[in-house]
Every structure is written in C-alpha cells, then in structure tokens.
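Lay summary. Proteins are chains of building blocks that fold into shapes, and those shapes determine what they do. In this project we predict the shape from the chain. Here is one chain we studied, written as its sequence of building blocks.
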Amino acid sequence: MKSFKFLTLSVMIGAVLAFTTACGQSNESNGSSGQEQSGEENKQLEGNIAIDGSSTVYPIMEAIGEEYMATQPGVKVAVGLSGTGGGFEKFTKGETDFSNASRPIKDEEKAAAEENGIDIQEFELAYDGLSIVVNKENDWVDHLTVDELKKMWVHSGKAIKWSDIREGWPEEEVKFYSPGHDSGTFDYFNEVILEDEEMNEAAVLSEDDNVLVNGVTGDKNSIGYFGYAYYAANKDKLKVVPVDGGNGPVEPNNETVMSGEYAPLSRPLYTYVNTAAIKDKEQVYDYAKFMLENAGPLAEEVGYVSLKQEEYDAQLETLEGLKK
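And here is the predicted shape, written in a compact code that computers can read:
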C-alpha cells in the first residue's frame, strides 16, 4: 500500500513539474500576457461605496461587504439600514451607490430619481419568506390563515384578544410588533395581508428588526413579523407560525420559499444601483460584480434563499452591459 502511494505521488509530482515547465515555456513565447492577466485580476482598488436601505436585505449586503473588503482592503463599504423607503430617499438624491429594498421601487421613487438625473438598475439578490412569529411560550397557535392575520392586524378601534381570533384561545390582549412605515417589509405586509387598510394602532413599529425580536421574546401574548433571516438567527427563542394561504398551513423554509408554496409571504429581495456609479467608479462596478458572484452562498449563510445560478449569470451579463 505504501509503495502504491509513493508511486502515485511520484507520478503526480512528475506531472506537475512537466506542466509547470510547459507553462513557463508558453509564457515565455507569449511575452508577459499571463502576468498582465494575473495583475488585472489582482488589481487593488481604492475608494468608498455607499449602501443603504432595507433592514431585511442588510444581513446579505453586510456579509457581501465584509467579504469584499477582505479582498479589497483599500475600498470602504458602508452599509446602512434606514429601511427601504428611507434608502430610496437617499438613493434618488444621489447620496448612495446602492439602495437595498425588500419591495420593488415605486413609481414616485423612480420619478424622483429621474428628476435628479439618476438612472437605476434593479438586481435581485435572494428570496425571503416573511415570517410570522410568536413567543416561544405560546402553546395555542399552531397556524394562522391569511384572513385571521388580517383580522388581527387591521385597525378595528378596539383591543384585540387571542380569543377574538379563534374560539378557545386565551382571553388575553395581543401585543403587536411590526416594521415601521419606511420598511419594504411593512409595505409588502400591507399589500398582501392588510390589503391597504390601516394597521392596528396598538402595534409597536420599528425599522430595527432586532427591536421586534426583543419585543416578541419579551411577552407571551405577542406576535410580530420580519424577514426569515431574523427568525433563523433567533429560532431558539421564537416560534414561527405556519401560514395558510388557501392550501393548508405552510412553514417558511428554503424549499417552500423558493417554490412559492409559502404563499403569499414569499418574495424576492433587491438592490438598486446608480448606473452612473457603475461607469464612473471602478470600485462600484467591481463590488457589483463580486456581489452577484457571491450573493447566493452568502444569502444562504445569513438565512435567506439563493436564486438559481442562471438568474445570477443573467444579471452579470446585464452588469457587463452597463459598463460599456
């Protein structure tokens, strides 16, 4: 067995030496083209990249930013989380290079960008399953229908008790925790659950999802919602609620979110880029390329669901078109 390993190793070393020699001869015959290509790939950049927007998208972009700065230490990537609406307000004024969003850009936001001479490009980063969560000690909720969610969250002018939602549940007042009005997650929930009706005025609103996590974990009678990554990061102290969108209760996970089975709370997550920055700032183009090449695994790492590889590839082609 040892002689076989030695023979195999000897063959491998011989092959490597032969390959190295051949490469050296090839590089000599081709001049310095190999060195130039390597130098281009390893080119170190400098400058700043400004990113703001959705708190839901923040974990993905934070992870991408950290990985990018490890390869390009001369570039400072600053990622804020002022909410989708707050991010677009800055982006449409030209204050940021990228604007993260948990919903598509609105017509009025597009108009604001156009008025300021800003051309935009949308990129999808991952899929999210907006997660309904209750306190870990809640032992009565096994699932909620879309109609029950609406009944709970729409403003009715009176305090809502669990017993108002389903017979046999506790006669205790429900405590609500929701993303704030600048959040794309709020907008999405408003669209598919509230159907544009006013939210329960008793709800505690915050643009910081960690505030919502702490609120739900601190009260047995609480309920809240936010992006799946924040549930995944806190699943030891939160209970996720399966949602019945008409075909039976479904819990959010990678499979049900990607397939759309977790309906109607599955959605894509976006970032928008200022196309002028792609052309004028080498570090912004380089970051966008790195982002699309690495968004899939990093989105999975922080708790979201990757797009299909062909979707990232198609967007990389779009990016290359912007550079021309």
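What the prediction tells us: The longest helix spans residues 2-29.
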